[in-house]
């Protein structure tokens, strides 16, 4: 039976680390897919009697996306350790080199587009590697983490634990807007079925605080839960969605659920304001083949949702970014059949980092190169349209 390249290798290495009591650090992207991936792997390790020494989610506003030098400075005291990156890492070339020098052994478990080279990690699991012959490529990262848990746990992945994981996989797959086909379709169906009778206090709470009606379709229920979980920020290197989903009692779950419900409302209002601001600006540049707008007052956590709405309404590639003191970080959304990664590859000499999916990606760039990046993109898309 075919398996995703290096998945068995990763499972063997993690089992060895559990057996020899090595330090294990889980480093996940701070969105719902990254959070779900970390929880699945953490709970798998704990079920095998292992210990996770640290969990780290980067604060996107302060650290950007993926492995950051700031994170490595904080984690350095734990080296040597097995550093497992989930839902990020495939584009962290420089940071993984630094991690290696610090004494970390790095495993990358990612589902984003593979760029022109691979990072110098010990093991890389990403079905989009060119020589990976696994037929299905469109997993959310939580789907890959679940397949890893199957190899780790074997017969210990009982019905109850399986359901606990699959409900997270379903939510992550829907949240990351992965295609609802193939294995994803199975994960979503089984996960949503499990969600109806969830025993996880951090999910059960939504029924108890009357945000969910028993009579509504389960996909609508999932959509509401995702919308709330997507409002999560980071507290002491842990996402608020992680703190909610791993809470073991109703009181803690209620606290975090109500916090996220409040944050979701504030987030939606701010997104609406930024979208209106962007629309005003681009009406003066309607002939441009792209939308390219940034502001120092636009939170990095909101540029993705803003870009999605602008892309939907204007049907052109959208680059929305937060302008920091020296670098800008942004989100990219493109209409179907336009590959944002290829577009940025053509301008990669100007970028610090970039990566993601063809229709949804991100970038980091020095401020002095923004104008040149915009011109490069305009030329790329003008040439593509001819």
Structure report:
The chain is α/β, with parallel strands linked by helices and 386 residues long. The chain has 2 domains: 7-199, inorganic pyrophosphatase (n-terminal core) (Alpha-Beta Complex), CATH 3.90.1640; 286-385, Roll (Diaminopimelate Epimerase, Chain A, domain 1), CATH 3.10.310. Helices cover 49% and strands 15% of the residues. It contains 15 helices and 12 strands. Helix 5 (93-102) links the parallel strand 3 and strand 4 (104-109). The longest helix is centred in the C-terminal third of the chain and has 33 residues, at 250-282. The model has no long low-confidence stretch (mean pLDDT 95).
């Amino acid at each position: 039976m075919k398996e995703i390249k290096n998945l068995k290798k990763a499972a063997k290495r993690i089992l060895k680390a559990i057996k020899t009591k090595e330090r294990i650090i889980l480093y996940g992207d701070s969105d719902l897919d990254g959070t779900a991936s970390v929880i699945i792997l953490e709970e798998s390790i704990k079920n095998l009697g292992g210990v996770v020494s640290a969990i780290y989610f980067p604060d996107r506003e302060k650290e950007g996306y993926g492995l950051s030098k700031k994170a490595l400075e904080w984690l350095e005291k734990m080296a040597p350790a097995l550093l497992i990156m989930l839902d990020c890492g495939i584009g962290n070339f420089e940071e993984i080199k630094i991690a290696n020098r610090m004494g970390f052994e790095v495993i990358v478990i990612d589902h984003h587009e593979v760029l022109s080279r691979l990072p110098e990690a010990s093991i890389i699991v990403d079905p989009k590697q060119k020589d990976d012959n696994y037929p299905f490529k469109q997993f959310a990262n939580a789907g890959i983490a679940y397949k890893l848990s199957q190899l780790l746990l074997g017969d210990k992945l009982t019905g109850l634990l399986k359901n606990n994981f699959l409900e997270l996989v379903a939510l992550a797959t829907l949240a990351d807007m992965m295609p609802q086909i193939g294995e994803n379709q199975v994960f979503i169906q089984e996960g949503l079925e499990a969600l109806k009778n969830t025993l996880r206090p951090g999910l059960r709470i939504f029924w108890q605080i009357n945000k969910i009606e028993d009579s509504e379709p389960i996909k609508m229920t999932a959509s509401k839960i995702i919308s709330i979980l997507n409002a999560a920020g980071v507290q002491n290197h842990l996402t608020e969605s992680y703190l909610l989903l791993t809470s073991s009692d109703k009181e803690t779950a209620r606290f975090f659920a109500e916090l996220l419900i409040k944050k979701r409302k504030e987030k939606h209002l701010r997104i609406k304001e930024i979208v209106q601001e962007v629309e005003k600006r681009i009406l003066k540049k309607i002939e441009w083949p792209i939308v390219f707008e940034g502001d120092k007052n636009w939170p990095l956590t909101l540029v993705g949702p803003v870009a999605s709405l602008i892309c939907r309404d204007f049907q052109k590639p959208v680059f929305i970014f937060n302008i920091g003191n020296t670098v800008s970080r942004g989100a990219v959304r493109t209409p179907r059949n336009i590959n944002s990664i290829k577009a940025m590859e053509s301008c990669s000499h100007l970028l610090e980092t970039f990566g993601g999916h063809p229709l949804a990606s991100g970038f980091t760039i020095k401020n002095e190169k923004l104008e040149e990046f915009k011109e490069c993109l305009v030329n790329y898309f003008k040439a593509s349209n001819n």
